[in-house]
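Problem: given the chain below (117 residues), write out its structure.
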Amino acid sequence: MSKRTTALIIVLIVLAAGLGAMYYQNMAREYYYGQVGKLANTDESKGNHDPDVYWYNIKGYNKQGKFRELHVGSYQGHKFTKGHYIKVGWSQHKGVISYEEVSRDQVPKQALSKINM
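Solution.
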């Protein structure tokens, strides 16, 4: 193999590793579990057919019990039900990127023990 081919392969490997790290940083999710409390604030629509957005501060815990304060906004004007459990997808780059309601049985034990303290 020539030096030029070897150098090209090394550059491609470094480039692929860099792109993979960027993708992971932007898209990788860590899931946090919490219980819905009171409504924090509301962004009211300005009459342009967009629904109101309801914001909640969720004390979230991952499956190892690590804490993170999450500011979660509802989609399509949907209010959360106080006391229900929620699973929140969070990324280092974008913050909260998804959420879904879950049952108590779906919450990992480490997170559940912290939520119920």
